[in-house]
Design goal:
2 helices
């Protein structure tokens, strides 16, 4: 349950364990097996060479790398 709401959030366990305590969230296993998934970046080709867009993509990759390793 998300504090102050009647909502339940399902997110990747590594993300939940890293962010949950700081946000006051209890991390519990789901009551059923959930499939794994892949997170991808997708953009229109016109943005491929744009320096600001390239910077943003690299920042997002770096943040994702931090969540991809255990702990």
């Amino acid at each position: 349950m998300l504090p102050g709401t009647d909502h339940v959030l399902t997110i990747a366990s590594r993300l939940a364990h890293r962010l949950g305590p700081a946000l006051g969230l209890a991390v519990v296993p789901p009551p059923l097996d959930l499939p794994s998934y892949t997170v991808s970046l997708v953009w229109h080709e016109r943005w491929t060479a744009d320096p600001v867009h390239r910077w943003l993509r690299e920042e997002l990759r770096e943040v994702a790398r931090g969540f991809s390793s255990p702990g």
